[in-house]
TrEMBL record:
Residues 52-170 form the C-Maf-inducing protein PH domain. Residues 1-41 are annotated as: Disordered. GO terms for cellular component: cytosol; nucleoplasm. This is C-Maf inducing protein. Pfam families: PH_21. It comes from Anser cygnoides. Gene3D superfamilies: Ribonuclease Inhibitor (3.80.10.10). The lineage of its organism: Eukaryota, Metazoa, Chordata, Craniata, Vertebrata.
C-alpha cells in the first residue's frame, strides 16, 4: 500500500522516497475497531487510472486532528495513543473546509491558505482510506468509507485549494507575462483534472472574466493572448457574461483578427446549437451578434456569413440541431431592433402601425388629438384620391425626430370611402379601387453603422428562408410580426424582407403559407402588410396576388376568406383583375358564385371588371354556364335517395348529377366508391341533402372543409374508413345540424374527439 501527494499540489513538503516514509500511526477505527499495527508508510506517485469523479461540495467523513510541532510529526504518526475519530459533515466552501457541527476537531474551519499539503495515506495490513492535510502546528486526517470516496475527497480538496490560490494570485496582477503564464497553468489544470463537473471549466473562465473586467488597460496583444490561452475551455462551455462582454469588444475593435475565426467560431457554433434561452443570458446573444458582424467585415463579407450559416445547417437536407434556427432568428430580431432603438425611444407621439396602415385616419389618444396621416411619396394607386382631397383639406405638417406626419382637420370623406362592403351606401367603382388608404413610409434615416447591421441581418433572414426544412419554423417564428413598427414603416427594411415573404407565398406547404395570415383576429399579418394599401406594399399587387393564390388553394374556410377580401381588399382585387391578373379574376368569379357580394351595384361593377379583359370575359361566361347548370340541378323534383355503384369515380358522380334535377335529394350514399375530395364541388350544390355516406372512400380533409361551409343542413355523415385527419374533422365544428357522425377507423385523435363533442354539443 502507498500514499502520495497529488500532481500539482501547492506548497507541500518534500516527498519521501518510496519505502522511507514515516510509519503509519496505530489508529483506532472509526467505530472503535481494532488498531492497526505500526508499519512503514510508502508514498509512491499517484497514477491516473482513468477514474472520473464528481466535484464534492459537502459530505460525511471521519476526522482526526493531531497537534504537534513539525519536527515531531514522524514520532506522533507512529504513536499508538492517537485521539479518537469524530464523524463530521464537512462543506468545501470557496475559502475553506468547515463542519456543519463546529465542535471537537472541527470547531474552527480550515482555510485553504492554511493547508500546506494534501496527501493520500494507506496501510498495508488493513487499509484505512485516509487523507492527510498538513496545517501549521499539526495534521488533520480524513478517513473515507472506501477508496473511491477517498480519491473523490482528495481531488476535490486539491481543486478547491488551487482555485482559491489562483483567485488570490490573479486578483492583484503585477506583471502580465506572469499573469498569462498563471492563466495557462490554470487552464491546463482544468483540462487534466479527473473531476467531471460543469464548474471545473466554468471556475477558471469566471476567474479570467473577473480579471479582464477589472483591468481595462490591456493591449490588443494581451487580449489575443488571453483569448488563445482560454480557448480550450470554451470548446464545451459557454463563456460567462463578463467574458462575453470582452469578446464583443474584441469583435468590434478587431473584426479581422484571426482570433475571431479560429477561436470564436466554435464558441458561437456551440452557443447556437445548445443555448435554450437568450433571455436568461442576453450577453451570449450579443456576442453572437457581434461575431456575425465581424464576419461581415471581412473581405468576402456576406459570403463568409453565408458559409457560416450553411455550416450551422449542415450538408444534409435536414438540420440535425433543432435549436440553431430559433437562436439565429432571435439574434436577427435583436439586431434589427437595435437599428431602430433611437426612433423607438423617441416615439411618444409617433403614429401606431394601425394608424400607418389606415393612413392615420383614426382618432388616437396621444397628443395632438387629431387624426394623422403619413406623407406619401409615390402615389401610384391614390393619385386620384389625393387630387380630390387636396382641395378640401388643409394639412399642417409636423416634423419630429425625422418622422413626418400630416395632421388632417377633416376625415369625413375618408370615412365615407371606407364604408363596409354590403351596406346600402355602397361606394362606386372608383371608390372601391381607392378603398385602400394612402400607403406611406416614415422618413427614417439610419446611421451608417445601423444601416450595415440592418443589411447584414435581413440578408441572414433571406438565407434562412432558402432552406426548405427551416422554412416552416421560420414562418411560424415570424408570423406574429416581431419587428418594431418603425422597421415596418421603413421602406428599405420592408423591401428587403419582401424576399422572405415571397418565399413563404411560394411554398406549397400549408404550415408555411398559412403563416402569412395574422395570428389572431383583429391583428395584421404579413398578408395585410404586403397587400395594396399596406405599409409594406411597394409593387402593383404581384405579391398580393401570389399570396391570395396560395391561400385560396388550402384555405380552411374559403367563404370566410373571400368575405374578408370583399370587405377589406375588394378595390385592389378589382384593379388587378382589370390588369388581367388571372388569380384576381378567379377571386371575383368566386365572390359572385358564392354570393359574397349582396349589393347590386357592386355586383355590376365586378361584372364590368370581368368583361373588360379576355380572360375575365371567358371565366365569367363559364361561371354563367355553371350557374345555369346549378339552377337546373337544384330544380325541385327528382329522387330523394340515391346510391352510386361501387367503383364509381368523381367523373361518374359529376355526369350523373348533370343528367337531371336533384333538388329533392336528401340521402346520398357513395360508400365503397372511388370518389375523392374533388367531388365536394358537386355535393355542395345539393340544397336538400341531409344524409351523406362516404364509407370506405378516398374523401379527405379538403372535401370536409368545403362541405362544412356549404352543407349547413347536413344531419348524418359517415366517414368510416376514410383518410380524414384531425385538421379536416375540426372543420365540421361549424355544422351545428349534425346529429350523427361516424368516424370509426379514421386518424381521429382523442383530443379532437373530445373537442368535437363539446363543439357539436352531442355525444359522437
Amino acid at each position: 500500500a502507498s500514499s502520495s501527494s497529488s500532481r500539482g499540489g501547492g506548497g507541500g513538503q518534500q516527498q519521501p522516497e518510496e519505502g522511507k516514509g514515516p510509519p503509519p500511526p496505530d489508529v483506532p477505527g472509526p467505530e472503535g475497531g481494532p488498531k492497526m499495527g505500526a508499519a512503514p508508510c510508502r508514498r509512491p506517485p499517484l497514477h491516473c487510472n482513468g477514474m472520473r469523479y464528481k466535484l464534492l461540495q459537502e459530505g460525511d467523513i471521519q476526522v482526526c486532528a493531531i497537534r504537534h510541532p513539525r519536527t515531531f510529526l514522524s514520532k506522533i504518526l507512529t504513536s499508538k495513543f492517537l485521539r479518537r475519530w469524530e464523524p463530521h459533515h464537512l462543506t468545501l466552501a470557496d475559502t475553506g473546509v468547515a463542519s456543519a457541527t463546529p465542535t471537537g476537531y472541527m470547531e474552527n474551519s480550515i482555510s485553504y491558505s492554511a493547508i500546506e499539503d494534501v496527501q493520500l495515506l494507506s496501510w498495508e495490513n488493513a487499509p484505512k482510506y485516509c487523507l492527510q492535510l498538513t496545517i501549521p502546528g499539526g495534521t488533520v486526517l480524513l478517513q473515507a468509507a472506501n477508496s473511491y470516496l477517498r480519491d473523490q475527497w482528495f481531488h476535490s480538496l486539491q481543486w478547491k485549494k488551487k482555485i482559491y490560490k489562483y483567485k488570490k494570485v490573479l486578483s492583484n496582477p503585477s506583471r502580465w507575462e506572469v499573469v498569462l503564464k498563471e492563466i495557462r497553468t490554470l487552464v491546463d489544470m482544468a483540462l487534466t483534472s479527473p473531476l467531471q463537473d460543469d464548474s471545473i471549466h466554468q471556475a477558471p473562465l469566471e476567474i479570467v472574466s473577473k480579471l479582464l473586467s477589472e483591468n481595462n488597460n490591456l493591449t490588443t496583444q494581451d487580449h489575443e493572448s488571453i483569448i488563445v490561452a482560454i480557448a480550450p475551455l470554451l470548446e464545451n462551455n459557454h463563456p460567462p457574461p463578463d467574458l462575453c462582454e470582452f469578446f464583443c469588444k474584441h469583435c468590434r475593435e478587431r473584426p479581422r483578427s484571426m482570433v475571431v475565426i479560429e477561436v470564436f467560431t466554435p464558441v458561437v457554433q456551440r452557443i447556437l446549437k445548445h443555448n435554450m434561452d437568450f433571455g436568461k443570458c442576453p450577453r451570449l446573444r450579443l456576442f453572437t451578434q457581434e461575431y456575425i458582424l465581424a464576419l461581415n467585415e471581412l473581405n468576402a463579407g456576406m459570403e463568409v456569413v453565408k458559409k457560416f450559416i450553411h455550416s450551422m445547417h449542415g450538408p444534409t437536407g435536414q438540420c440535425p440541431h433543432p435549436r440553431v434556427l430559433p437562436n439565429l432568428v432571435a439574434v436577427c430580431l435583436a439586431a434589427i431592433y437595435s437599428c431602430y432603438e433611437e426612433f423607438i425611444n423617441s416615439r411618444d407621439n409617433s403614429p401606431s402601425l394601425k394608424e400607418i396602415r389606415n393612413g392615420c385616419q383614426q382618432q388616437c389618444d396621444r397628443k395632438p388629438n387629431l387624426p394623422l396621416r403619413l406623407l406619401h411619396t409615390s402615389p401610384d394607386l391614390v393619385s386620384q384620391e389625393a387630387t380630390l382631397t387636396e382641395s378640401r383639406l388643409k394639412p399642417v405638417i409636423v416634423t419630429s425626430n425625422e418622422i413626418h406626419v400630416e395632421v388632417e382637420r377633416n376625415n369625413t370623406a375618408n370615412q365615407k370611402m371606407t364604408a363596409n362592403v354590403g351596406n346600402d351606401s355602397e361606394p362606386n367603382l372608383i371608390d372601391c379601387l381607392m378603398v385602400s388608404p394612402t400607403c406611406s413610409t416614415m422618413s427614417i434615416e439610419l446611421s451608417a453603422q445601423a444601416d450595415r447591421i440592418l443589411g447584414c441581418y435581413v440578408e441572414i433572414l433571406k438565407m434562412l428562408s432558402d432552406y426548405d426544412d427551416w422554412r416552416p419554423a421560420l414562418a411560424s417564428l415570424l408570423q406574429p410580426i416581431p419587428f418594431p413598427k418603425e422597421a415596418l414603416a421603413h421602406e428599405k427594411f420592408t423591401k428587403e424582407l419582401k424576399y422572405v415573404i415571397q418565399r413563404f407565398a411560394e411554398d406549397p406547404r400549408q404550415e408555411v403559407h398559412s403563416c402569412l395570415l395574422s395570428v389572431r383576429a383583429g391583428k395584421d399579418g404579413w398578408f395585410q402588410l404586403y397587400s395594396p394599401g399596406g405599409v409594406a406594399c411597394d409593387d402593383d399587387g404581384e405579391l398580393f396576388a401570389s399570396m391570395v393564390h396560395i391561400l385560396m388553394g388550402s384555405c380552411y374556410k374559403t367563404k370566410k376568406f373571400l368575405l374578408s377580401l370583399a370587405e377589406n381588399k375588394l378595390g385592389p382585387c378589382m384593379l388587378l383583375a382589370l390588369r388581367g391578373n388571372q388569380t384576381m379574376v378567379e377571386i371575383l368569379c368566386l365572390m359572385l358564385e358564392y354570393n359574397i357580394i349582396d349589393n347590386n351595384d357592386t355586383q355590376l361593377q365586378i361584372i364590368s371588371t370581368l368583361e373588360s379583359t379576355d380572360v375575365g370575359k371567358r371565366m365569367y361566361e363559364q361561371l354563367c354556364d355553371r350557374q345555369r347548370e346549378l339552377k337546373e340541378l337544384q330544380r325541385k323534383g327528382g329522387p330523394t335517395r340515391l346510391t352510386l355503384p361501387s367503383k364509381s369515380t368523381d367523373a361518374d358522380l359529376a355526369r350523373l348529377l348533370s343528367s337531371g334535377s336533384f333538388g329533392n335529394l336528401e340521402n346520398l350514399s357513395l360508400a365503397f366508391t372511388n370518389v375523392t375530395s374533388a367531388c365536394a364541388e358537386h355535393l355542395i350544390k345539393l340544397p336538400s341533402l341531409k344524409q351523406l355516406n362516404l364509407w370506405s372512400t378516398q374523401f379527405g380533409d379538403a372535401g370536409l372543409r368545403l362541405l362544412s361551409e356549404h352543407l349547413t343542413m347536413l344531419q348524418v355523415l359517415n366517414l368510416c374508413e376514410t383518410p380524414v385527419t384531425d385538421a379536416g374533422l375540426l372543420a365540421l365544428s361549424s355544422m351545428k345540424s349534425l346529429c350523427s357522425l361516424n368516424m370509426n377507423s379514421t386518424k381521429l385523435s382523442a383530443d379532437t374527439y373530445e373537442d368535437l363533442k363539446v363543439l357539436l354539443s352531442y355525444t359522437c
